[in-house]
Amino acid sequence: MTTLKDTLGGNLRQYGIVGALGVIVVLFQILTDGKLLLPNNVASLIQQNAYVMILALGMIIVIIAGHIDLSAGSVVGFVGAFVAVLMREQSWPWWLAIVGAIVIGMLVGAWQGFWVAYVGVPAFIVTLAGWLAFRGLAILILGGKTIASFPQEFVAISNKSIANFLGWLGGSRDTVTIVLGAVVVAALILSQLRARRTLRKHELHVEPVSGLLIKLVLFSLLIGYFTFVLAGSRGGTPIVLIIIGALVVTYSFITQKTVFGRNVYAMGGNLQAAILSGVNTKRMNFMIFVNMGMLAAIAGIVTTSKAGAASALAGQGYELDAIASCFIGGTSVYGGIGRVSGVIVGALIMGVLNMGLSIIGTDPAWQQVIKGLVLLAAVAFDLVNKRRSGALVR
Asked: Residue 137: CB partners within 8 Å, gap ≥ 6?
């Protein structure tokens, strides 16, 4: 007899995360009298939570490999201060300042990766030191002041949308956004069919056709609805959404289709087995933190662009949002398990909670309490499932 688990190809946890997001969205749509999914609010949800998604893409690799990074928020503030100084005080062109900031972020990652990989200091300690050090450097760079008045092109990264050069569909919907949504749906269907064909070619297990159809229909409808709502916003597709989309595609490929990605999962699943298999764990750990530094730099650029100013306090607590997004999205606290798609859903859950609670006027202190309880519930659910399956013995 075919079970629900068989039909869904064993991906019940991933569907459960998406279902949880749907329940939360519906709940806050009711509690806010329909305000949550107003087109401009949906666009704001993306722009305000872009930093979480970007940081989470790096954090998931760190956590899968068995580490943690507590310095990401401080690096965001440090890089934001750095790029602001380059543009305002050193008169660098905005695009060159961005390149310089990304290089600095990679150097920060290399510094932390050196201590973790080649000296053997636990990542918790290294990044805790980084949390303190880079926050201090941000304060020193800015000298206690706030730097603002950036070039329009830089501010547009997080605050503007793609130019509507195709006109308006039905007089109120951005045609560019509709086209982009259709492209995403088509790409999703083609990628799933290609993956299924590849598995069959190598005589590997494939999910039932019914499961594939359910998945494709479900996600196509979700993307279609999101596209329709976003197309009605003030500007259409935010520029930062394109950046996030490109990063999601890139890191989905890296984690699932490359030797680097397979080695990350191998290290997190069984470090000693990975070493015996010939994985250069020192080099891998070094590169993992270089990558985290680069993504923290991108998040710093996006954050500074969104605020239109650089402050030494920028990025406070961002690392906690990224870590929470990973765990809520199904990444295992013990490493070795996690998916980019789950992390993005986790980040959206955090974003919807933030926006929904703000709209209904919840006290910020209670917002923190609720988010903390959601994180605890997600991790507890993961551990209970592992114990039931026998994958975890404690």
From this structure: 78, 81
- What pLDDT does 74 receive? 96
pLDDT tens per residue, range 20-59: 888 889 999 999 998 998 999 999 999 999 999 999 999 9
What the block records as the tokens of 328 is 């809520």
- Per-residue pLDDT, averaged over 263-290, amounts to 94
Fill in the DSSP letter of residue 147: E
**Whether the Cβ atoms of residue 105 and residue 275 lie closer than 8 Å to each other:** no
Query: What count of Cα atoms within 13 Å lies in the side-chain half-sphere of residue 177?
Result: 28
Q: How many domains does the chain have?
A: 1
Paired strand residues for 168 = 174
Check the CA dihedral 252-254-257-263 and report its sign. Answer: negative
Q: Is 229 a domain residue?
A: no
For the chain, what is the radius of gyration of the CA atoms?
Answer: 21
Q: Work out the pLDDT band at 204, boundaries 50, 70, 90.
A: confident
CA–CA distance from 330 to each of 65, 345, 382 (Å)?
15, 10, 7
Residue 42 lies in a domain: yes
329, burial (CB in 10 Å: exposed 0-12, middle 13-18, buried 19+): buried
Phi-psi region of 261 (alpha: psi -120 to 50; beta: other; left: phi over 0): alpha
Collect contacts of 191-199 with beta carbons under 8 A, ≥24 apart.
192/216
**Which run of H or E residues covers position 139?**
helix 123-142
What angle is formed at CA 346 by the lines to CA 343 and CA 348, rounded to 5 degrees?
115
Distance CA 225, CA 26 (A): 14
Domain contains 280: yes
Give the integer Cα–Cα distance in Å for 77 and 191: 37
Q: Please give the residue range of the domain that contains residue 272.
A: 35-160+238-382
**What per-residue confidence (pLDDT) applies to 182?**
94
Mean pLDDT calculated for residue range 280-306: 96
Share of the chain above pLDDT 70, in %: 94
Q: What confidence tens digit (pLDDT) does each residue in 68-84 have? A: 999 999 999 999 999 99
Whether the predicted pLDDT of 305 surpasses 90: yes
